[in-house]
Amino acid sequence: MSFDIKALTRSFADFECYKRFIVHNCLKDSKVYFGQPPILDYLSEHGGCTQNELAAAMNVSPASMAVSIKRMQKSGLICKISDENDMRRNIITLTDFGKKQIEKIHSILDELDAKTFSGFTQEELVALKGYMDRINKNLFGDIPDKKCILKIIKNSITENGGEKDD
């Protein structure tokens, strides 16, 4: 009897689906949508920046970033202020509420990670990391940059009218 590779592949898909569902449920009361934490993290790490800088950092179009910014502004997570040196530019910064939400989100994600890997020994986690690295290399070995992969995926989703989560 040979190993059921399709069952293993389904397990990966199930894991991603469960994780996305749990994260979505955890975020629903925070006024933060699924794709927004990376934007908030970027602003937290880099301070204020323009819409175009954010779009480039997130590998999305400026138009797509404008939608996310508007939604996050409405939720009170970020604000736009005029650039003192160039009044034509707006600088996007985190509000105090946005900073608190980042802390809350990181706490939620840390708890999820702990729950996900509870019961595993250190050796099992090291082995799992090695297996995942090998799987990723098998799939994307000729692609030199993770950002390149993310950009291709995001462009594909946008072109096909797929997910619209920010």
Mind explaining what this structure looks like?
The protein has helices at residues 5-27, 37-46, 51-58, 62-74, 96-116, 122-140, 146-159; strands spanning 78-82, 90-94. The chain has 166 residues and is mainly alpha-helical. The protein has a single domain, classed as Arc Repressor Mutant, subunit A, CATH 1.10.10. Strands 1-2 form a two-stranded antiparallel ribbon. The radius of gyration is 19 Å and the shape is globular.
Topology:
Blueprint: H1 5-27, H2 37-46, H3 51-58, H4 62-74, E1 78-82, E2 90-94, H5 96-116, H6 122-140, H7 146-159
Antiparallel strand pairs: 1-2
Characterize this entry briefly.
With 166 residues, the protein is mainly alpha-helical. The chain is 65% helix and 6% strand.
By CATH, the superfamily comes out as Winged helix-like DNA-binding domain superfamily/Winged helix DNA-binding domain
Main β-sheet, spatial strand arrangement: 1-2
The number of helical elements comes to: 7
CATH class division: Mainly Alpha
**Rg, Cα atoms, Å:** 19 Å
What's the total number of strands? 2
Mean pLDDT: 85
Keywords:
single chain, 166 residues, mainly alpha, 7 helices, 2 strands, 65% helix
